[in-house]
Amino acid sequence: MPKQTFDQIDAFQWVASVQVATVWTSPDSSREIDTFGISTPTDIDRWIETLSYEDKLALCEDNRVQTQVLYGEQVYVTEIKGEWAHVVIPSQPSYKDKRGYPGWVPIHQLKQVDRSLWDQKKRAMVIKDKSWLTYEGKNHDFKLSYLTTLPVHDVYEDRVQVQTPHGKGYLDLSDVHIFSTSDGLEQGTGKSIVKAVEAYTGLNYFWGGMSSFGYDCSGLAYAAHKANGYLIARDAGDQANDGIEVRVDELQLGDLLFFAYQEGSGTIHHVGIYYGDGKMLHSPQTGKGTEIIAIKDTKYEKELCTARRYWLNTEENHNG
Predict the structure, then answer these.
(1) Alpha-carbon span 153 to 125, nearest angstrom
(2) Is residue 282 annotated as a catalytic residue, yes or no?
(3) Which is the catalytic residue, given 86, 225, 270, 305?
(4) Is 217 a catalytic residue?
(5) Catalytic residue among 86, 217, 225, 305, which?
(6) Which residue in 8, 81, 179, 276 has the most C-beta neighbors within 10 A?
(7) What is the mean pLDDT of residues 97-106?
């Protein structure tokens, strides 16, 4: 994880204060049709539903969106310009900035929180597709994405009290996995990497997507590894430069497959997760949903250029 290089003695830290904060290329990148995505609170479901295919495609083609951060995820603010903040995201490694993935977020989608309140011994990670965060005595509920992670205060019979950017809230105990902050998540196998995102088959692709409201290809790969205790780079090109290189004839469940233009000799543009039996699980492109496909006799067979493994090597994963 990139080392923090500023705000080291500050008693507060910046975190995302909406269900999903989209990180834009510049303060001018968002459009009027993106209102539900840049408002506070956000309504990501409604935003995605109201965008046409052309609107969604333009997020990529016009270089509008970079990535996303989940509710409560830490960012470092490096500059404030009007109503926008330039941030880097330490939990999303990138060649673009050694401190973390860079981009612009509406300042009202961020909040400064007391580090002492955030520094709890346990954390709760959402393991359901979505989970409702509720508050006692407040009309301030959030529909949270898969893998949203918040500090834990107390655990009760059927719910867990968590620290949020808006105070203490509650999540259903059955919706979360609680783990030690000091130990982190137990690292999973290649099989568990596949299982972590297998349920999102059919979920529509969303450029820059890092949530269960919509993933892009490298966002899906990132989420599968995050769910299993592995921090990997945000983008496919960076993901292909790390991990352990794997021969195509030695692929196992959970390995990442990378695809490049010019029949594999050009720039990497896509990543999928090896599913076994010559298949991959991937989020292909705008207008299509996450799918499991056989690679043979597709364009991907010719474009496959390398494979990488990030998971621990155990015999449980072997499935050619």
Answers:
(1) 13
(2) yes
(3) 270
(4) yes
(5) 217
(6) 276
(7) 98
